Amino acid sequence: MDKVIDSKCPGSDPTQKAVPQSFTCPECGGDIEIWTDESKGKCSSCHKTFTREQVK
Ligand SMILES: [Zn+2]
Q: Which among 2, 46, 55, 56 is placed 20 to 30 Å from 36, CA to CA?
């Protein structure tokens, strides 16, 4: 299960704040950042694109 960072806040905020999450590249072990509003991200080392499914 995904870690829930944001618990319920009082007052509704229509704009969800996107934050980058760090993953390890399955290809080269480099850093991949996937923003919480994105489903995929690019490795900073090999520049390949991976989906969340591929890096979790
Ligand atoms: Zn890589």
A: 46
Instruction: Please give the distance, rounded to the nearest whole angstrom, from the Cα atom of residue 14 to the centre of ligand 1.
Output: 34
8-38 pLDDT tens trace: 666 666 667 999 999 999 999 999 999 999 9
Q: Which domain holds residue 33?
A: 20-55
**Per-residue tokens: 47:** 């520049």
2 vs 5, 10, 29, 36, CA distance in Å? 9, 22, 21, 11
28: in domain: yes
Report CA(38)–ligand 1 centroid distance (Å). 18
Residue 14 lies in a domain: no
| Domain count of the fold of the chain | 1
Residue 43 placed within a domain:
yes
pLDDT of residue 10: 62
